Amino acid sequence: MMSKKTMTGLLGLLLAGHTLLAQQGSVFTNGFARIATKEKSWYINTAGEKVFDKIESSFPPVDSISNEHIFSSNTHSMMIVRNNGKYGLVDDRGKWVLKPEYDKLELQNNIYLNLYKQGKMTYADTWGKLLLPLQFEKVGILDDHRFDVKQQGKWGIYDATQGKLVIPAIYDEFDYCGGCGLKSDYVYAKKGGKWGIVSSSGEVLIPFAFEHKHSMMRSDEWVCSFTQQGKEVVVNIPLKKVYAAPTYSQMEVIGEGVLKAKKNGRFGLINVKGEQVLDFIYDNIEDPYGSYASGPYLTVTKGGKTGIVTASGKVVVAPSLDEDVICSDDYIIAAHDGMYNIYDSTGKPLLQQNYNGIELMSSSGNIPLFALKRQALYGFVNLSNGKVVTPAFHEVGMVTYGKDKGLVQVSYQGQSGLYKPDGTLLLPPKYRGYQLLSDTLLTFNTATGTGLFNTRAQQEIIPAKFKYIDPLAPDSTLLSVTAVTAAGEDVFGLYSLTGKELIPPVYTSLLPMNKDQYLVMKDNGNAVYSLSTGKMTPLPYSSVAPAHVPDLLIVSDGKNSFLWNVAKGKVVSKPYPMVKRYEGDTTLSPSIPEFAFGVAPVQQNGKMGAINSRGEEVLPFIYDGASMLKQGVILLIRKSGENWKYGYADTTGKLLVPLDYDYNADGYPYDYDDSEYLSLFKLSDGLSRTHSLSYKKGLADRSGKVVIPPLYNEVFIGNKNSGFVTKTEQTVTVLDASGKAITAEKFTAVMLDRLASPYSEGITLTYPLLCRKGEGYVYLLADGKTLPLRITDVTSFNNEATW
Amino acid sequence: MKRSLLVTPSLLLLTAAAFAQTPVTAGYLDRFEGDYARVLVNGQQQLLHRSGKLLIDKIEAIGDFRITAAVKNGAYGAVNNKGAVIAPFKYDAVRILADQNKEHPEDNYCLVLVKLQGKFGAVDSLGNVLCQPEYSAIDIISPRVFAIKKNGLYGWCDMKTGKVIQEPVYEEVSASYVREKALEIRSKGKAGIALEDGTVLVPPQYERFIGWNFDGELFSYYTANGKCGLMSKQGKVLSPAIYDDIKQGPSEDLVAVTVQGKTGLLQAADGKLKVPLQYTKAACLGPLFQVWKGNLTGILDSSGKEVIPVVNTEIKLYDAAGHSIYGALPNPVRYTPPYYCVVKKGNTAALFSESGKQIMPFDYTEIGVLPDRDKVFVIPMKGRQCGLADFSGKLRVPVQFDGVAIQYAMQGYDDDAAGDEKDHFIGVMKGGRIGLFNMTTGQLVIPAKYTDIRWQNPYMLCLKQNDSTCLADKTGKIIRALEQYGSFDAVSANLIVERNYKMEPATTLLINKQGKVLYQNKNWNFSASSYNRLLVPELSKTRPLQFNSGLLKVRGDGRENQFVDTTGALVVFDEYKYVGDFWNGLALAAKEERQFGIINRDKKVVYPLVLDDMSPLGDDLLLAKQGDKRGLLRKDGTVFLPLEYENITQLYDTTFYVVTRQGKQGVLNAEGKELIPAAYDEIRYYKTLQLFEVAKDGKKGWLAIDGKAIIAPVYDDMEQNQDWDSNSLFPLLVKQGEWYFYLDEQGKELPYRSKKRKGYDE
Hints:
The structure holds 2 protein chains of 2 kinds.
Chain A: H1 4-10, E1 11-12, E2 24-25, E3 33-36, E4 41-44, E5 50-52, E6 54-59, E7 62-66, E8 69-72, E9 78-83, E10 86-91, E11 96-102, E12 104-108, E13 112-117, E14 120-125, E15 138-141, E16 146-151, E17 154-159, E18 164-171, E19 173-175, E20 186-191, E21 194-199, E22 204-212, E23 222-223, E24 226-228, E25 231-236, E26 241-244, E27 249-254, E28 258-263, E29 266-270, E30 276-282, E31 284-286, E32 297-302, E33 305-310, E34 315-321, E35 326-328, E36 331-336, E37 339-343, E38 357-360, E39 369-374, E40 377-382, E41 387-393, E42 395-398, E43 408-412, E44 415-419, E45 425-431, E46 433-436, E47 441-446, E48 449-454, E49 459-466, E50 468-471, E51 478-484, E52 490-496, E53 501-507, E54 509-512, E55 517-522, E56 525-530, E57 536-539, E58 543-546, E59 552-556, E60 560-565, E61 570-571, E62 576-577, E63 599-604, E64 607-612, E65 617-623, E66 625-628, E67 634-640, E68 643-649, E69 655-662, H2 670-673, E70 678-683, E71 695-700, E72 706-712, E73 714-717, E74 724-727, E75 732-735, E76 749-751, E77 769-773, E78 776-780, ...
Chain B: H1 2-18, E1 24-25, E2 28-33, E3 36-41, E4 44-49, E5 55-56, E6 58-62, E7 68-72, E8 75-79, E9 85-91, E10 93-99, E11 109-116, E12 119-123, E13 129-135, E14 137-140, E15 145-150, E16 153-158, E17 164-170, E18 172-175, E19 182-187, E20 190-195, E21 200-206, E22 208-211, E23 218-222, E24 228-232, E25 245-247, E26 254-259, E27 262-267, E28 272-279, E29 281-285, E30 288-293, E31 296-300, E32 306-312, E33 314-319, E34 324-325, E35 339-345, E36 348-353, E37 358-364, E38 366-372, E39 375-382, E40 385-389, E41 395-401, E42 403-404, E43 413-414, E44 425-430, E45 433-438, E46 443-450, E47 452-455, E48 460-465, E49 468-473, E50 478-484, E51 487-490, E52 495-500, E53 507-512, E54 517-521, E55 551-553, E56 562-565, E57 570-572, E58 578-579, E59 586-590, E60 596-600, E61 605-611, E62 613-617, E63 621-626, E64 629-634, E65 639-645, E66 647-650, E67 657-661, E68 664-668, E69 674-680, E70 682-686, E71 691-696, E72 699-704, E73 709-715, E74 717-719, E75 732-736, E76 739-743, E77 749-754
Parallel strand pairs in B: 1-77, 43-47
Antiparallel strand pairs in B: 2-3, 3-4, 4-5, 6-7, 7-8, 8-9, 10-11, 11-12, 12-13, 14-15, 15-16, 16-17, 18-19, 19-20, 20-21, 22-23, 23-24, 25-26, 26-27, 27-28, 29-30, 30-31, 31-32, 33-34, 33-35, 35-36, 36-37, 38-39, 39-40, 40-41, 42-44, 44-45, 45-46, 47-48, 48-49, 49-50, 51-52, 52-53, 53-54, 55-56, ...
């Protein structure tokens, strides 16, 4: 990657505030560029042709809609544009989706486009696809494919799948329940000043004889929004029957679609078939599920007592219960004289004892879990297995997040315990806190520390004496334990899941080397512990460090450093004498650094080479500098007097770029590793070695092949293999991906729209490319030609931009 | 089992009392958060009540009067603010129904509901059983009675004694809003009214009642067929139920009744129509009836007489203080009679008295009424022009101006320095320019042609027209003509300081109204806004500089001790190097650098010139500094506190002074008397609690406002109660040596201690 700093120097800034010169041009964005003169501006396509005048707005098209949530495209955008006063739509590849021939084109609710033309309107989706032909005066959206449309002043219904009017345009007005979950196959229609119901095939289901208000709207067999001469009515559509005052009053469709009504002062129920399913003998009938749930039961009250009935009129419990009844799916929580039980669909109590409170446990999902209360204590019951956990806790609740999600947490006097929803005890409520490790293991906290608990055996298998107990790795069968020494220092040990101590917690560091062996370290010595043998093998070295290669340690004995293979239990490299880190250093440090890409550059006798993890020399010790770069290649430096030459080798030791290039000892590391290419620098004759501007830059690819010879002050690398821009003091050259100049023309700057993606580090070179040439600008094409446009200055892409 | 549970709380109280001397050693103690603190006792985390008498397991709720519904031994009980168990821990539920109404303590009540085996009972805040758990529901009706429900029917009980006043026989009982201490009772679906004492006032035979206000004598009752009639507070039917609607009138004598959309007035006493059904609508408007016939409106007085005919389009009512009145008068009446009506007829407006006397003619397009502190302005308007009048109808300012400077200051008009003249003069605006109107004489004394008018004293005004300035007296007479960049400042009733730029060099002059130059000095740097205000009281600090004590300081010439008197004679205070501006005959003075004191007009020393510096402390005192000593002077130069302290600060928003002597802090009161001797390292005052927190030698304590120690400063650490609402610091969690324990507001220890404070994760 090119640093931002470099880019600024190379690219012209997109500034405004210029006085308008003859003709300004913007960089190309999504296939268009804006051309502006003092009087007007317009947009051109990549062929240089004028395509439209103005961008009205841009928006992301909709990929999908789910549960009312709109998922807009992250990768595409559409633009509403205006040309000669007419509106059209273009996509982000510069293609016309809707030609500019509309009087108005606007985005509605981010999901539709409203299109107007010559007194007609229609809708399109956000990709520009028309949902119905442009032939109606007004259009409303009923559902995915049906539209209420106005034709010659009257309304009908157009079905887009059939491509025709399914209800002729002969009505004054339509209404329908947009918010109903179930879509109706009829509409409310007005004709001759009165409302009725018309089926989606155009058949009049209910004649036009009612007044209507858009409230209590339904989409099923019942109509509750009508009145007749001001009187309350409910209409049953299939039966074409009208229930009306004074016979019926206080009518309401409740539960799963039955009509509750009052007749002779009492309430009863009538079903969709018009059958009286419940006699008119009750003081009231209600839906016990509330507004946001539903279920099979209704409650009836009579003489101050409550009963339960089904929508078909079956009496589950005769009115004998207390007033407050709560139903959850098929279960009924109700009380006799203030004492609660749960009743099933036959009216049978499911609990052997009554409780002074019962409620559905929240977040219990599909499991019928109910909290039970006796005096101030809570327990719970799982009705799928009938298991009752007797009330003994100050709180019970379903855990809703974390590893123990779905378990039941109980607490008593501030201490927590845990149950499975099936009623199995996992952890008694004796602990300050806990953390689930597996189905059977959890760590717990007490005032003395952290321990390990086996839920199956119901046993503390590691007492609460550690600061932390954590799995060694996510899938490990071993536990790292942390203890604190008297001096307050953390020390580490290893335990098995059965609670057995494998490595005592006395080590300042504990690192797995492979599946069996662990490097343990403490102040007075380091060792390797084998799980399989239980043997601790001391390492006779003063300094030990992980090499970041499996099995491999870098060890030093005070004089030399070696590679130590833990599995083999032996040294696998030559000795490399330890080194001073800087002039005047009084201590010796290991000469082998950490490995990267399987290789480590190593110092020996004042020279640098490289070894691999087997201890083999991959680069001979003949270099004055060697350093692993982020790309996974090794930068090699050789010094000869004041001359520093550098090249690159791969991790096998193969020289990719010979040491022919000039190294800037005062430069920055990112000069060499900030792109996938290999940077090539050559010092200009006679210039200072320490000044970065003295170096000419080029690039080689990863195989070492020179793509751009080192002739330039700066090289800009286009993203996605889109080519290069090079710069010398005077000129800028545009090159293709192979490094070949696109044209022999020389420019002084290339304008790139960095603001198009402010968070991206790089820019893809796209053509036409706005290049500065002399006092003016040209649009350069990929074939080296230019668009026949004379541009005198740069302007912004958007019309409104002021800077 | 039940028996033992019942006696447990009392046993526990005994235990706590008997062994108060030997504290319980707890696993840990936490600071108090309100009435409770978390403590670990016998290995169990419990909550200790602030009384120190009681441990509970869990707080269910804390209600008014700080009654706690609490959990202990797995059951619910209730605890009062003294820590006494008022409902033993044996219940299935406890609910606190209480209201603590500070403004109406007579409406306070506290009912603690207890539930056992599905049945409700009640106890009071002292633990007296009001009723046993035998009811299916209990509910508050009023501060005096509560409802009981049995077998689906309701009765009620006395709140204080629990005595059943009415056995449960009604389908519903609820508070009635037709009169005080009444209940609405329902039987067979019909409503009646009973008094709280059980007397049935109206047997249940009506659909509903609508009360108008508690103090009124009347209300309406409705029958099943939707008609209504009038009833008295004693339950007497005053009119048959033949009306569609009845509305309260401004007095008890008349009410508005409606039949088929026509409204008339009914005499309450005999139920007869006093005003026939001739209006489309009638409503209370303060002490009057506003009536309508279609879109036209008028006013009837409380006897039903049409005092403003029904020919107007809009009527607004104001009281004598200028407040708008909508609807009926509140009880008690918050308004100031008499009342006035602004009446609009189409685009014209007039002012009427409440008796219908026309005060201002229909000559205006609008009449506004604006109260402004103790004054009311009546603002007649014609189109966009306004004037000023009063409720007598007299025009004080003719309707000629775009604006008058009332209520909110008019930008560009400043009468801050006008003194009593403010009552006579008002700024007026026309076409964006300001003038001055004398409301007493009815004359426009300064035409509205200035951009800025500022009174400089009660005699003269500085007028500006953009960058030109002139000076006028309050009769409008121009004293100094308009001059570009002119600089004029009135410095007394008839003296003016003028910077004359036409003179060469520019010179500052003292002149009289007649223009006679009394004194001149080219080096005089006069500015009316920059002068020494140390002796000036707060209210006068923003006023322009004036002659005071017959002198005006002449700044300039590199001298700080010269003044002119009102004759223009130079008065030099040679004895002093610096003399500040005079106020009440006194001025700040210095002989040498950093040797300040106070002198009088006769050049005599009032406070010796020995101070390094002086600065204001509050509005009345000056902080005097000499070396590292501080003292306080009054503005008359007398000593309030001698120069004996290292530091003196005033406690914010109090009249206490914190003084430091020999590195130790103490507190003096407003009179300078010592409240707390200067013996503490740090003193902080808690104003709402009226307590001082003090620290001494690393130990902390608390002192009362009289300086007496509540908690002697002997504790290493101290944590206040975290409940900021209750405004109490106590009980404090303190540490002394290795022990933590609690201290209450008397400084007494609670009977628990521990060597550990509860950690945050425990």
